[in-house]
Amino acid sequence: MIEYLLVAPVASVIFVITVITTLMAFYNEDLYAKLILNPYDVSRGKRVYSVITSGLIHKDWNHFFFNMLSYYFFAFQLETVLGHWQFALLYILSLILSDLPSIQKHKEDIWYNSLGASGAISAVVFSAILYFPLSQMGIIFLPIRIPAYIFGILYLVYCSYASKHARDNINHDAHLFGALSGIIITIALNPHVLGNFIEQLSGAIQSLLH
Question: What share of the chain is helix, strand, coil (3-state, %, to 5)?
Fold first, then answer.
């Protein structure tokens, strides 16, 4: 843990705070109710802070586990290449931006709630993809690995489709807009990353053709 604190202090602090807050909310319904995002309330100026605090809690153990596992695989490495304050800005800003479409979409639905760090974690994953597009990414429960950039394309297509057609309880809008926020913010913080991304893809394509 000391090593993580030294090389990625911001990612480490966010990880610890999210774990502690989620566990506390699991066993405290009043805290859970205070931290969760309700678009109806937020659009009327109530509990605006929940745009951020909703990213510190999760619906259940599966939701919690998969988000933290994804965070663990990408966040610590990303901070070392993106920078400390840059990582903090990426995470917090994408957490907010990923919730805005849901707030607008459900502002008249008093019973709709949203929670989880999925939007910000999607931003972290796609920021990492910009830096490491050729890294191999596994798909949980499937014995295959694919290049990160292909995973990114498939992920965006799926989220876009699911946002319009899915009838589950997953906030696909947060995943989609979190991913897009991660791409835009990363390029804004480091414009050179786009050129490096294209160069890596071009090199991979040329190697396949020869």
Answer: 75, 5, 20
Question: Is 207 strand, coil or helix?
Answer: helix
Round to whole Å and give the CA distance between 125 and 10.
16
Check if the beta carbon of residue 111 is closer than 8 Å to that of residue 38. no
Residue owning tokens 């876009």: 160
Residue 74 C-beta-side C-alpha neighbours within 13 Å: 28
Q: Which residue has the higher pLDDT, 204 or 49?
A: 49
CB 187: neighbour CB atoms within 10 A? 15
- Token pair for 201: 């893809």
CA nearest to 124, candidates 186, 62, 66, 69: 186
Confidence label for 130 from pLDDT (cuts 50, 70 and 90): very high
pTM reported for the whole predicted model: 0.90
Least trusted range by pLDDT, from 44-58, 114-128, 194-208: 194-208
H or E element: which one contains 137?
strand 136-139
Q: How far apart are CA 118 and CA 173, in angstroms?
A: 10
Sole residue written with tokens 């931003």: 123
Q: How far is 128 from 132, CA to CA, in rounded Å? A: 6
- The CA distance from 126 to 129, in Å, is 5
**Contact, 146 vs 137, CB < 8 A?**
yes
